[in-house]
Amino acid sequence: MDTAGKVIKCKAAVAWEPNKPLVIEEIEVAPPEANEVRIKIVATAVCHSDLYHLLESMHEDGFPVVLGHEAAGIVESVGPGVTEFQPGDKVLPLFISQCNKCRFCKSPKTNQCENGWSNGRLHVMSPSESRFTCKGKKVLQFTGTSTFSEYTVVNQMAVAKIDPAAPLDKVCLLGCGICTGYGAAVNTAKVEPGSTCAVFGLGAVGLAAVMGCKVAGAKRIFAVDINPDKFEKAKVFGATDFVNPKDHSKPVSQVLSEMTDGGVDFSLECVGNVGVMRSALESCVSGWGVSVLVGWTDMDDVATRPIQLLSGRTWKGSLFGGFKGKYAVPQMVKNYLDKKVKVDEFITHTMTLDQVNDAIELMKHGKCIRVVMTFSSQ
Fold it and tell me: Tens of pLDDT along 263-307?
């Protein structure tokens, strides 16, 4: 059946209000307008940023919404002015746009884009416009992507075309978590061969950061987490040492300093907790230590003593690993197909969209690395 130009009715998981279970609903997905692409989602994963919006920030203006942003699919139809994509293309939606026209896109120094959904909308984490309706109400599109739906509509500047040989139920993870952690190590921290690193938090982002440190040639990689069950998994990605802060009476920064003759060369905070961010910075060696904020949060101030920075440490932030998505995601997919980066090892559970609340519970309680959801009708 040709659906181009028509409203599609399909299944989606709708968050009607904060801190409540998602509801599987039939929604209407409008046809793509100018410069937009309608995508049939094949596989999507649950990321902590989805939980952050639903359970932590809970901004009332950010609901109702269809969550999800780490996904892969196939182009169903394109709107006027779209030349880069055609129906049948395998793609990943991107939560950071790349218009290739603004000053940020033209600069090699950043992967930010002035024309993306986030301009003035970070508090609600969705653009004001939406192609979704349900029960007569507009439903917001989380980060401009909304992949907990069988179909979604995305601006062409937030879509990456990938190798048609790529398995979508695997490479969907490259839409957020893996690129975020891996890139934070190789692009933002710029981990050096022979260096010592510490990664705080061993979810998908943290494990990807461990992998990035290893690929960059780090000599020692400390995996830091309060859940010892994650240490065996971290070993798979290249961790050499393991520190559970609960096993020590002194601050973890002091523990790491004593284990490394003054601190690590690079640290990456992959939790999204301002207290852990401070610990990660203070775990770095003075003089040249670099600490990168990777975990997403925007609820509390982060603080440290000025001497921590005056003594030569650098504190940086990283979104989506510093990757310009349209260029980097296809390359990361190729790296996966060439067995240069791990992806399958991040997947601990597979489910259908109907089980989305079970997937959220697993992540909330640290019982998974990544849950990949597929659609039962596909």
Answer: 999 999 999 999 999 999 999 999 999 999 999 988 899 999 999
Note whether 149 and 140 are within 8 A (CB): no
pTM above 0.85, yes or no: yes
Active site residue 368: no
Residues shown for the chain: 378
Distance between the two ends of the chain, CA-based, in angstroms? 15
Which position among 47, 99, 113, 284 bears the catalytic label? 47
Considering the candidates 10, 176, 213, 368, report the single residue annotated as catalytic. 176
Residues 281 and 283: their CA atoms lie apart, in Å, by 5
3-class SS at 47? coil
Residue in 215, 214, 235, 212 with CA at minimum distance from that of residue 223: 235
Whether residue 42 contacts residue 168, with contact meaning beta carbons closer than 8 Å, is answered with yes
Q: Which residues pair with 198 in a beta bridge?
A: 222, 267
47 is catalytic: yes
Catalytic residue among 10, 48, 49, 126: 49
Cα 274 from Cα 299, distance rounded (Å): 9
- d(C-alpha 300, C-alpha 291), whole Å: 18
Residue pair 215/332 in contact by the 8 Å Cβ criterion: no
- Specify the 3-state DSSP secondary structure of 214: helix
Verify whether residue 53 is a known catalytic residue.
yes
- Catalytic residue, from 69, 118, 213, 284: name it: 69
Cβ atoms of 316 and 323 within 8 Å: the answer is no
279 annotated active-site: no
Q: How confident is the model at residue 29 (pLDDT cuts 50, 70, 90)?
A: very high
If 0-12 CB within 10 Å is exposed, 13-18 middle and 19+ buried, where does residue 249 land?
exposed
CA distances (Å), 80 to each of 35, 40, 42, 144, 198, in order?
A: 6, 18, 24, 19, 48
DSSP state for residue 260 in the 8-state scheme: T
Catalytic-labelled residue, pool 10, 48, 53, 284: 53
Active site residue 149: no
What is the model's pLDDT at position 378?
41
